[in-house]
Every structure is written in structure tokens, then in C-alpha cells.
Design goal:
The chain has 164 residues and is an alpha+beta fold. It has one helix spanning 2-38; strands at 47-51, 54-61, 71-78, 81-88, 93-100, 103-112, 116-118, 139-146, 152-158.
């Protein structure tokens, strides 16, 4: 009986550990992919708009000889999942990828040296002339609140120098 109890406890502990390791791997993949995506944002391409569950952040990567094509990327919270949407510029979405499940909130901040960190892009104080593109911020921060624990994760990503 004692041997069975010990085996049962070991198996329960292993299941809990496996679940936590899978969640950590999911979080690491999502953060890595977002860092790679933001590092490819092209000049004056970052846009924001209000979505049903918070701010939607999008940007474009223009075609180069090595990249093969232009596309846009979008991040938004949708029904408890952080979604990544890839679309051909001016086209329909190519892929809707859920990056993280069980997310209760996503917050965005944008850094501009003259204004510091702000929750809006472009900053309210910035004068934008009609027809003039708004340079990208120097950095973008995303704060993700996990639904199960309420824990928050924050990732700060520098945008490419030529994209500002």
C-alpha cells in the first residue's frame, strides 16, 4: 500500500511539472516571436486602434530583395487569447495565430525620448501634420496579465533605429 501511495504521488507531481513546463515554453515562444516581429518594423509603420478587448497594435514590414514581400502584423487580445495576425499588405489575413491562451488583459506602452513612456501612439501631445507619417517609437512594452494566476509579464522591445 505504501509503495502504491508513493508511486501515485510521483505521478501526480510529474503531471503538474509537465503542465508548468509546457506553459513556460509557450510563454518563451510568444515573447521570442514578438521580439523578432517588432525588430522588423519599418519606418513610420506602427499604428494603434481601439479594439473590442483593448488596444490593437499593428505594423508593416516592406519588401526587400532578401525578404520576398510586404506584410503587416497585428497583435490583439481576442476571447482570452493573445492573437498574432499576419496579412499581406492591403489583403486578407494569411494567418491568425493564438500565441498565448488564458490571458485576461494586455497593456501596451510606447517610448519616445522626448515624452517618456505613454499608453497611446502617437502621443497626444505630438502634433501630427496631415499626410505626414509619424515615426515609430523607440521602444514598445507589452504587459500580459495571465488569467489563472493574475501574474503579469512585461517585455520591452527596441524598434530598429532606421524605423524611428
Amino acid at each position: 500500500m505504501a509503495g502504491f501511495s508513493m508511486l501515485d504521488q510521483v505521478l501526480r507531481t510529474q503531471r503538474q511539472t509537465d503542465g508548468k513546463l509546457e506553459r513556460i515554453a509557450e510563454l518563451q515562444r510568444a515573447m521570442h516571436l514578438m521580439t523578432l516581429d517588432f525588430s522588423q518594423a519599418t519606418s513610420a509603420s506602427l499604428t494603434t486602434q481601439k479594439g473590442p478587448e483593448g488596444l490593437v497594435v499593428a505594423w508593416q514590414r516592406n519588401a526587400t530583395e532578401s525578404s520576398g514581400g510586404s506584410f503587416s502584423l497585428e497583435y490583439a487580445l481576442n476571447e482570452g487569447a493573445l492573437m498574432r495576425v499576419v496579412a499581406v499588405t492591403e489583403g486578407t489575413p494569411l494567418a491568425r495565430q493564438p500565441l498565448l491562451q488564458d490571458v485576461s488583459a494586455v497593456g501596451w506602452q510606447f517610448y519616445e525620448p522626448s515624452a517618456g513612456w505613454g499608453d497611446e501612439w502617437p502621443p497626444v501631445a505630438r502634433v501630427v501634420l496631415p499626410g505626414q507619417p509619424v515615426p515609430n517609437p523607440q521602444a514598445v512594452a507589452i504587459t500580459i496579465t495571465l488569467a489563472a494566476t493574475g501574474n503579469q509579464l512585461r517585455r520591452v522591445v527596441l524598434l530598429p533605429g532606421e524605423a524611428r
